[in-house]
Design brief:
Largest sheet: none
Strand content: under 5%
Number of helices: 3
Radius of gyration: 20 Å
Order of helices and strands: HHH
Number of strands: 0
Helix content: 40-55%
Shape: elongated
Length: 92
């Protein structure tokens, strides 16, 4: 799982480099969708067609930008428990 996420991030980085945008501006979800859509198609292509297809996909991914979110910073935090009851602190 972790390797596939790193592969998606590397793909987003490459598409940002091709399009001249910052990697943080490229949409992660759109990148996942483009990569998954290309997975089946790419096996049936020749090497030259595969290269042209990949470059065109990278250009398309680079155009899918995240919306403007001024002042937004999303640190990773542990969410609080979804229950309204207190945590059990002593064994039964």
């Amino acid at each position: 799982m972790r390797n596939s996420i790193n592969a998606i991030r590397t793909t987003a980085l490459g598409s940002a480099w091709i399009c001249g945008t910052r990697p943080r501006e490229v949409s992660f979800v759109s990148c996942c969708q483009f990569v998954l859509a290309a997975w089946d198609v790419i096996d049936t292509m020749t090497a030259a067609a595969r290269r042209a297809y990949c470059v065109s996909r990278l250009e398309q991914i680079g155009k899918c930008l995240v919306g403007k979110r001024p002042g937004r910073f999303e640190p990773r935090v542990r969410k609080k428990r979804g229950s309204n009851y207190n945590l059990m602190m002593q064994p039964r």
